[in-house]
Amino acid sequence: MGKRYAPTEYAKKLILMELDKLRKQGHPPNEVLAKAVRSGYLDVYPIGKREFTPTIVSGSQPLAPVSEWKPETDEQRRKRLEIAGFKKREL
C-alpha cells in the first residue's frame, strides 16, 4: 500500500488541532478521519460540501445525531487537550 507512516507525538498533536479546527467548521471528526484512512492520506482535510452523516467508527454508534451535538465547553476542551498531552502553557 505504498509508504508507511509513523507519526511523531508532535505530528499527532498537530492532527488533533486540525481536527478540532475542522470540527468547529462543521466537519465531524469521525467523518474526517474515516475519509483520510479510506483515501490513504497522511493528514486530515475538510470533507467536500455535502450533508454529513455520522460514521460508525470501531463498531460504536455515535452518541447523538450530528444535529443534536452541542459545542464543547471550555472545561471539556481543557480536559480533552490535557488527555492529548498538551501542557497548560501550550493552550
Can you put this structure into words, describing what you see?
By secondary structure, this protein is an all-alpha fold. The protein has one domain. Helices cover 41% and strands 0% of the residues. The chain contains three helices and no strands. The longest helix has 16 residues.
Give the number of domains. Answer: 1
Strand content: under 5%
Distance between the termini: 36 Å
Secondary-structure element series: HHH
SSE class? mainly alpha
- The whole-angstrom Rg is 14 Å
Gross morphology: flat
Q: What is the makeup of the main sheet?
A: none
Number of helices: 3
- Uncertain spans, ≥5 residues at pLDDT below 50? none
Average residue pLDDT:
76
Structure described in brief:
It contains 3 helices and no strands. With 91 residues, it is an all-alpha fold.
What features would you highlight for this structure?
single chain; 91 residues; mainly alpha; flat
Give a topology summary.
Blueprint: H1 9-24, H2 29-39, H3 74-83
